[in-house]
């Protein structure tokens, strides 16, 4: 019984770790796309980003317009 319980706990931990890694990978992909889309404006000094949060980027873009 105890062995089965420990096995379930370990399986759940592994599932959570896998989910976290997938979320990180998706976030990294999204940020790569965002930087590709807005990179030229950032490079030209037309926009500044102090935080990688997409909402912050959108607000800064709106303020710059």
Structure description:
The protein has one domain (2-64). It starts with a helix and ends with a helix. The chain is mostly helical. It has helices at residues 2-43, 54-64. The protein is rod-shaped, with a radius of gyration of 20 Å. Helix content is 82%, strand content 0%.
Shape: rod-shaped
Query: How many discrete structural domains?
Result: 1
* Class computed from helices, strands and strand pairing: mainly alpha
Give the beta-strand count.
Answer: 0
Describe the oligomeric state of these chains in a short phrase: single chain
Q: Segments where pLDDT lies below 50 for 5+ residues?
A: none
Helix share, percent: over 70%
> How large is the radius of gyration?
20 Å
Largest β sheet strand count, sense and barrel closure = none
Number of discrete helical segments: 2
Order of helices and strands: HH
Strand content: under 5%
Distance between the termini: 63 Å
Mean residue pLDDT: 81
